[in-house]
Design goal:
Shape: elongated
Oligomer: single chain
Strand content: under 5%
Helix content: 25-40%
Order of helices and strands: HHH
Length: 48
């Protein structure tokens, strides 16, 4: 049983990710909308 998506990961580790039973059920459903935030990749530039 592999992990092929973030929803697979969240489903497998739902109990570790939340103490709330309702949230665990949501994570296990694999129907969580994942939103990516904008990230300033220049923060990783160590040459400055």
């Amino acid at each position: 049983m592999g992990i092929f998506s973030l929803n697979d990961l969240f489903s497998r580790y739902s109990e570790a990710l939340s103490n709330n039973k309702e949230d665990q059920i949501l994570l296990q459903s694999k129907k969580v909308d994942i939103i990516y935030l904008k990230y300033d990749w220049s923060l990783n530039d160590f040459s400055q």
